[in-house]
# Entry
Amino acid sequence: VERMLTKKAQPPVDPVLGLAAQAIETGEYSRARQLLKESMANDMENPETYNLLGISYEKEGNLLKASRFYRVAYYMDQTFQAAADNLERVCQFWRKDSKDIQWGLSIDGR
# Structure
């Protein structure tokens, strides 16, 4: 029982978000966005969805759209550090490399 109390349960990750993350990693941005729209139909208030949309636009080079989606993700959950870090990175004058992207998912070490 003591062991169970010290271990925090992770909320299940929407499998569609995992598929969208894979699509982003392989450069299939349109496919990722379509998957993320499907995810939004089930839960419009999931900040992970908007963070991934931001990542898709950032990887494509559209920093303005990326920053908008990172802002939405951060607005929805100010404790979501991945969105805060991504927003800070894309809004910096001297931008860090995109390898510093924070996925904010608890799957596959992202």
